[in-house]
Specification:
Elements (H helix, E strand, L loop, with lengths): L1 H12 L7 H20 L3 E5 L8 H10 L2 E5 L17 E5 L5 E5 L1 H11 L7 H27 L3 H23 L13 H14 L13 H11 L2 H4 L6
Helix pairs in contact: 1-2, 3-4, 3-7, 5-6, 5-7, 6-8, 7-8
């Protein structure tokens, strides 16, 4: 939505109008869209998932940081599986101020929707694409770690998970090393920061715990510490 405001302002900035007409139009566009954004933020949310962090963790954290009104719902599984979109979770149910309801599934789609809505992705398309690129790269580590946590914890899978995570560290440590704030973007928490915490927590509950460490990735660990000390993150409820 922030991108919509900027795009419309750029459009009118390129046109010629007499007197103060263009200035007034720009102001009205900004006020109208800003009001619409605030109206959209009045929504309440239900996250349908299991009583564990998993694929709902990032969305829960973003909603908590944004100060949104949200709650968990733990459907009986697999009894309620046929009632879910695509028969899987998480599912986000948004109840809007006008009484309408929006249902969304697929964890990464839900995350991007909430990230865009509450400013965890920037309005600039290039900057947003860069941050989404970081998250997309993190998915390799998530999937490799999932194999040893939920499938088969054998030597081959541990090797793959370790190599994938070390490659991830090799690529992301320099990004954070260049950041004066310690975050992936600007001076506040953004989507890839939260996803990084998710990957870190996931790795620490697996047999490759310790792959993230102060020696190999001091800047990543610095960010992890910042996030873990944030009360709005540490207080996120994953099981009630």
């Amino acid at each position: 939505m922030v991108g919509d405001v900027n795009n419309l302002k750029r459009l009118f900035g390129s046109l010629s109008f007499p007197g103060n007409f263009k200035t007034n139009i720009n102001q009205k566009i900004h006020i109208s869209l800003s009001s619409f954004i605030e109206f959209q933020k009045m929504s309440t949310y239900t996250i349908k998932y299991f009583p564990s962090p998993g694929r709902a963790f990032v969305t829960r954290v973003m909603l908590n940081l944004a100060g949104a009104t949200w709650k968990n719902e733990f459907p009986e599984w697999p009894q309620e599986k046929p009632n879910m979109p695509y028969e899987r979770m998480p599912v986000l149910v948004e109840k809007r101020a006008d009484g309408s309801e929006f249902v969304l599934t697929e964890s990464n789609v839900i995350e991007r929707y909430i990230a865009q809505k509450y400013g965890f992705l920037p309005g600039d398309l290039v900057e947003a694409a860069t941050l989404e690129q970081y998250v997309s790269h993190m998915l390799d580590s998530r999937d490799a770690i999932r194999q040893i946590v939920f499938s088969t914890d054998n030597e081959e899978n541990r090797r793959k998970a370790t190599e994938t995570t070390k490659f991830f560290i090799k690529k992301h440590e320099p990004v954070l090393a260049k950041s004066s704030s310690g975050f992936h973007h600007g001076d506040k928490v953004s989507y890839p920061d939260i996803f990084l915490l998710y990957i870190y927590n996931f790795s620490e509950m697996s047999s490759i715990a310790g792959t993230f460490n102060e020696t190999d990735c001091p800047n990543i660990m610095k960010l992890i510490k910042i996030l873990k000390e944030n009360p709005l993150i540490s207080s996120v409820s994953n099981d009630k």
